[in-house]
Amino acid sequence: MNELPVVILMVEDNPGDVVLTREGFHQNKIRNELHVAKDGDEALRFLRREPPFTEAPRPDLILLDLNLPGKHGREVLAEIKADKALKSIPRRRADGVGRERDIVMSYDLHANCYITKPVNLDRFASIVQAIQGFWFSVVKLPANDRK
User: CA 142, 93, 146: angle at the middle one, nearest 5?
Assistant: First the structure.
């Protein structure tokens, strides 16, 4: 694993899911810098380094909720895909249901994977461990232009 912490942008409007994610990364000893955007508009401002995020780092991974207030997750994915500066950032979609049409649509919009949100802490911990094992140990990510 890198010496630097992994920079993650979590786009999530549920504070409970944010707490679970932080705890999951902590329990699995993933050195991370977790940034949270509460909706799609805020996420895009963060990614584009627009005010108030002019000093925001480029994420190594985006954890994107499907159902967001304002700009929906599918709109965020479409805008990331269309932006040459952002489209190489790995994106992971999450939803509590896992409906086939949402899964297909996510891959059509170039999500790198689709994970159904876990309903309990043990399952959540195993998903975080899988994220760590795959995205931060196995996969070679593009160079990050961190500030």
Answer: 30
